[in-house]
Design goal:
2-enoyl-CoA Hydratase, Chain A, domain 1, Pdz3 Domain, 20% strand, 7-stranded mixed β-sheet, 18 helices, alpha+beta
């Protein structure tokens, strides 16, 4: 009852405020909406035939209000707000693991280097059976929070199931302050280029980039830098600006944000204000469809100022700025308050552009802007690379193997009795053969798209209206499809071997080692390093040059 009274009082106060300051038709509409909503809420909670949970009703109302807005404006609980704090601050309390739900259990899907989970021998693929004697079967990853969050230094007793082992393994895991690495790989390539993988933009990202560059300079005569932003979802805008400042002259415009006047998102320009560390060194920036937000700000800035060649695939296209606003009872609203605009004036947001004069939606690719050197770039499509280099695409059947979890489960089972791997480990024909048999025993084909469709046909034909002949035909078709899909899998043995190699290796090797193994065979990194030492680098950045290196990375 107190909760209901509090809501009604809050609405009344807000109505009073809006009535006082309603000076035009827009605020009159706001005032009217609150008046109707308050009365509506009061009637439902007071007079509906049965009691309705006010909090449930409020949440549903909020969901309805946000449904037609952009997907980034969301109402968040305290736990969700804490997750944002973890990303922006770059630290949290835990064991150094990433988990997911797998077959009604909490499975370990990733382990961070140097923390409790790795030191005690926990392995990717392990499933948590119990913690401090509490059974964790049928629990969700959210249920793990009460054990992973808490006083640093305290331990929990964890029993885990590993692969095909019949008994559990007992481990003591200590809570630690987990510091997220924003730069997850910094490596010298071809004895002359620096490669930096930026995983996210948080408060210490720029400092980590500077540290990597200082190390490179101490070891070699640096001739170029590759910044890898692939699959980087963004983070803090300020962190992206700080990274840009490392390479741009003082007073360079980096990004502009524009929102409503007198709101959280009023116009603001971000310019470089410190002396750059490397203002002239050749730069290559790698992006793909997973590069978003602050990543696109950095790539778009370098592109517009002709400071770097951007390689890879078109970015995600998230050009909206969010502000987190505190709400009562430890809740929050993450609300879109502005848009990002690169130095040339283009908006990053994909397919969302309104003509500033006509106030109508216009065709995205007709909005052309110019870089500092006069190169044409377009708005509302994300960041299109200077040189589009498509990533290697796996056949559909291999994607199904990965997404179904069969590959993950096989690697966990295969590694059960193995203590370590040789550094030069590669998947051979013997392991491939074992995997093919595993697919058959796991009835993998039944969970593919074709398998699901055949199951529906079998279910339909089981009705008495269908003949035995029809059911036999469906069975024969299923057997033939099974042979064909196994044949397809065998045909793509080289690509399958790479997938298996990665899944098995990451159960034994550190993140750093895995990244170095991947980079050695990364075609886009190879192309970038070759470009930095080639005169094509300057050609791409000169006026009216388009996609000099449009190639497939197969």
């Amino acid at each position: 009852m107190k909760y209901k009274i509090s809501i009604i009082i809050s609405v009344a106060l807000l109505l009073s405020f809006l009535t006082t300051y309603a000076t035009d038709s827009y605020y009159y509409k706001v005032n009217k909406a609150f008046e109707v909503f308050g009365e509506f809420f009061r009637e439902i909670t007071t007079n509906y035939v049965i009691d309705v949970d006010p909090e449930y009703l409020m949440n549903k109302g909020i969901e309805g209000m946000l449904a037609d807005l952009d997907p980034y404006t969301v109402y968040m609980s305290k736990e969700e707000t804490d997750d944002i704090d973890i990303i922006t601050n770059g630290k949290y309390t835990g064991f150094g693991i990433t988990v997911a739900e797998r077959d009604s259990m909490i499975a370990i899907v990733d382990i961070m280097d140097g923390f409790s989970a790795q030191r005690t021998g926990l392995r990717i693929g392990d499933r948590i059976y119990s913690i401090n004697s509490e059974n964790m079967v049928n629990k969700t990853p959210a249920d793990l929070r009460k054990y992973s969050r808490g006083k640093i230094g305290e331990s929990v007793k964890m029993r885990i199931l590993r692969g095909k082992m019949s008994d559990t393994i007992n481990l003591d895991l200590a809570r630690e302050e987990i510091k997220l690495k924003n730069v997850t790989c910094a490596k010298i390539i071809d004895d002359q280029y620096g490669y930096i993988k930026i995983e996210r933009f948080a408060r210490k990202t720029a400092a980590e980039v500077r540290t990597a560059l200082y190390k490179f300079k101490r070891q070699i005569e640096l001739r170029g830098v590759i910044i890898d932003l692939r699959d980087n979802p963004g983070g803090l805008l300020e962190a992206s600006v700080e990274v840009a400042e490392i390479f741009l002259p003082v007073n360079s415009l980096i990004v502009t944000t524009r929102g409503r006047a007198n709101g959280y998102g009023n116009v603001r320009e971000y310019n470089s204000v410190i002396e750059p560390m490397m203002p002239e060194i050749p730069l290559a920036v790698l992006i793909n469809g997973g590069s978003a937000s602050a990543s696109e700000v950095l790539a778009g800035c370098f592109q517009d100022l002709d400071r770097a060649v951007v390689l890879g695939e078109t970015s995600y296209g998230k050009g909206l700025v969010q502000t987190v606003v505190s709400l009562p009872h430890d809740n929050s609203l993450k609300i879109t308050t502005a848009r990002y605009y690169t130095p040339s004036g283009r908006c990053i947001q994909k397919y969302e552009y309104h003509d500033r004069e006509k106030q109508q939606i216009v065709k995205a690719d007709s909005i052309v802007f110019l870089t500092r050197a006069g190169r044409e770039v377009v708005e509302a499509l994300g960041i299109i690379p200077d040189s589009v280099i498509k990533a290697e695409v796996n056949p559909k059947i291999l994607n199904e193997i990965t997404s179904s979890g069969v590959l993950f489960d096989f690697a966990s089972d295969y590694c059960t009795g193995i203590d370590s791997l040789e550094e030069d480990f590669v998947v051979n024909k013997v392991i491939l053969s074992i995997f093919h048999k595993y697919l058959l025993s796991a009835d993998f084909i039944d969970i593919t798209e074709i398998g699901n469709n055949l199951s529906k046909l079998r279910e339909i034909s089981s009705d008495g209206d269908y003949s035995e002949e029809t059911r036999n035909d469906i069975k024969l078709i299923g057997e033939q499809f099974k042979k064909d899909e196994i044949s397809q899998i065998k045909k793509h043995g080289v690509k399958l071997s790479k997938l298996l190699d990665y899944e098995i290796s990451r159960r034994f090797f550190s993140h750093k080692t895995m990244m170095e193994r991947i980079i050695r065979t990364d075609g886009l990194v190879k192309t970038a390093s070759e470009l930095l030492g080639d005169r094509k680098y300057k050609t791409i950045l000169s006026i009216n040059q388009k996609s000099v290196l449009d190639v497939d990375n197969d």
